[in-house]
Amino acid sequence: MVNPVKEFKVDELLVKVYRTRDEMGMSSAYDVSKKIRELLSVKDIVNIVFAAAPSQNEFLAYLSKENLEWNRINAFHMDEYIGLPSDAPQSFGNFLKERLFSKKQFKNVFYINGNAPNLEEECARLTRLLEENPLDITCMGIGENGHIAFNDPHVADFDDPKKVKIVDLDERCRQQQVNDGCFRTIEEVPRYAITMTIPTLISSKYIFCIVPAKQKAEAVRNTLMGPVSESCPASILRRCKNAILYLDLDSASELDL
Fold first, then answer.
1. Reported pTM
2. 3-state DSSP helix/strand/coil percent for the chain, to nearest 5?
């Protein structure tokens, strides 16, 4: 296994910096699969929530090659746009279905329906599923604005009483979807989404946060060096035990390594 070029802690958060994006993806997938095996040795079912974004591509590609007891794993995805066509490739459920969920025989995949006739009831349904299947592992990224899932700074709440909620997306979040090549223009990007809240995401026993690329360098710096506050939602990771942040040299480029 590839060793990081730098490893250090910021408060409770372990940070691993890798030379390349590929090495970062390989190592994070190795660590996640190792933790899955460890958990499956002591419990029947493991519940995992995944992020859907191009930043996760290498991690998902390597994880999908792992020989795990996938039929003992329940999978969630952490957010979904409201109002996209059900077959849209930008749908987060479809993104993960293509890269992981359709490649392995999971026990269950719990999709979020962004076109549900009653969106509050869809949030309630997902809340019940999370209560019945408490998260063991969170596999996540960080947005350019520091968001985790779709908890943008203006809607982020470290003490959110809800497990799942409907949010409006800020302009920088929506522009990131264009920057990532998911949409051609910002006008095409939905304005609303369903998201798991911050307390839900960090309720997992283990958190693996995978963040490559130069365009994330500012968010990484704010996460690690700024105040722990909702102005940079990902900063909450510094208070999480058993959390690891995986970076490449590009995303770590604004840190003093």
1. 0.97
2. 35, 20, 45
